[in-house]
Amino acid sequence: MTSVFFILSLVSAALTYNVHRPIARPPAARVIGFFAGWLWGEAAPWVIGAHVVAVLGFALGGAISGGLGLLGLITMAVSAAVLTNTYLDSGRAAIIFDRALKDGLGERFEEEIRSEARSKFESGIRWEPIALPFRTKHPDVECIKDIQFGREKGVDLKLDILRHRSAPRSAPVLLQIHGGGWVVGYKENQALPLMNRLASLGWVCVNVDYRLSPHATFPEHLIDCKSAIAWIKDNIDRYGGNPDFIVATGGSAGGHLASLVGLTGNAPEYQPGFEKVDTRVQGCVPIYGIFDLANRHGFHDATQLPEFIAEKVMKGSYDEIPEVYHASSPLDRVHEDAPAFFIIHGDTDTLAPVDDARVFTESLRRKSKQPVLYAELPGAQHAFEVFHSLRSQAAVDAVERFAEHVYSAYLATGVTKGTAKRAAKDATKAAPKKKAAAKKAGKKAETKPKSAAKLGGAKKAKPSAKAKKSAAKTNDADSRVVHLPASKSESGKSKPQAAKAGRVKAKTATTKRKAPAKAAPKAAAKRASKPKKS
Fold first, then answer.
1. 382 labelled catalytic
2. Whether 252 is catalytic
3. Which helix (H) or strand (E) holds 118?
4. What is the pLDDT along the chain (534 residues), one digit of tens a residue?
């Protein structure tokens, strides 16, 4: 038992060392170095707890005795102490993120964020989620799963929607693209801390799948992601999202695809069959992404990424199809109209070299008109934000602030365009109805004179003496209203229309004046027929 305990202590020491100096040689061992360093480092509180339980168990079993047992105990204690210090040191990520935000957006950037969101920001260490690192669900968030947005080459393309249970309206949208080297992975298990956090704040988060290699050949992965954006444009308003505002994010291969989504907005070659859909996004957050598939700087090991990509993803080497490699590299797609970027990378990443991110950031900063933020985290391994940890928590806080700042800027300048566009669309739809209503109203107006004429044709009562006197006054007034000015009158009638109206009034006045004359002879005759009194 003592020897087993000693061997266990050596394994602990090796894994702790791997957190600081991940295995890099041979290249095939990089994956082992990544998994060991990632889990051992980011889940350190649980690992340290396991150390305590192991020591107590072996001690109760009498295994910690003699020189070998004591050496094992010291080794375990040192490993636990180093790991504790390393984990607490990872909390400095919050300081690095804060500096990146202020360098990219301004020292007082938080004051430019809408107050509704700013009041909900969290800061500092929250130990409850860290104590349960793999519990990613949020009580205020609902998930609508497996909505099919397309089907390509026998593959059903599906997405999940995470949103607040209150069902928000016109909320900003986050598009999450999973990683996995373009060959594995699925939407359910990545970026859940980030999506649940944003959804709890009122965002609508869309988590998408895409075709994987070797079944898919690039750029089919990108086309599927853009197809998801086309679906968002047409449907997300039914789920409470604003189709005019999207921030794209993803890690590893998802970071590569999110970057291309941000840099190839409306590129017709990646939108077959939906070329006219506006696939631009307003922000982009690639996390430990791949930015140069051509490997022009040699950052990727010659026996690692290039051969893998050539065989599985591109179905051809760089020498055979160099134009495809360059077209598929975010480094080659940089331009001045790129959306705001926040690039996040760890300096001990064994799968995606940090130098790749540095070169991409500098290239983007030279050309883009929008803010380009960069945060490089010391000691951070690949996939560091997949579950709750100090680094993950700091990353979620930073991305939340970046996304909200971009959205607040959009509300101040861009939402008017989107609202006007939708209003114009609604007006276009309503135009036929308004035209029909106006036509109907015009017909009613035309029928009114006819009705009046019918009423005028009814049997007339004999006017009294008082009515005769009033009619005479009215007729005298009507006879004076005949000529109108050459310009439009107050009623809006032009000269010909006014003249016609004058003639109608004159004719009416004449008729009214003749009426008493017809009645007078009858009355005189009646009076004449009566015998005179003597």
1. yes
2. yes
3. helix 115-118
4. 899 999 999 999 999 999 999 987 777 788 889 999 999 999 999 999 999 999 999 999 888 888 999 999 999 999 999 999 999 999 999 999 999 999 999 999 999 999 999 999 998 999 999 999 999 899 999 999 999 999 999 999 999 999 999 999 999 999 999 999 999 999 998 999 999 999 999 999 999 999 999 999 999 999 999 999 999 999 999 999 999 999 999 999 999 999 999 999 999 999 999 999 999 999 999 999 999 999 999 898 755 678 889 999 999 999 999 999 999 999 999 999 999 999 999 999 999 999 999 999 999 999 999 999 999 999 999 999 999 999 999 999 999 999 999 999 999 986 544 444 454 554 555 555 555 555 555 554 444 444 433 334 444 444 554 444 444 444 443 433 333 333 333 334 433 344 444 443 444 434 433 444 444 444 443 444 443 433
Q: Helices 66-89 & 44-60, crossing angle to 10 degrees?
A: 160
Under DSSP, is residue 40 helix (H, G, I), strand (E, B) or coil? Answer: helix
User: Of 252, 328, 368, 389, which residue is the catalytic one?
Assistant: 252
List 224, 244, 349, 397, catalytic entry: 349
The sign of the dihedral angle between the CA atoms of 399, 403, 409, 411 is: negative
Catalytic one among 51, 300, 382, 388? 382
The residues pairing with 138 across neighbouring beta strands, listed in sequence order, are none
Is 337 in the active site?
A: no
d(CA 168, CA 150) in angstroms, rounded, equals 25
Laid out side by side, the sheet with 204-208 consists of 141-152, 155-164, 204-208, 171-177, 241-251, 283-287, 340-346, 372-377
Question: Crossing angle, helix 44-60 and helix 2-20, to 10 degrees?
Answer: 170
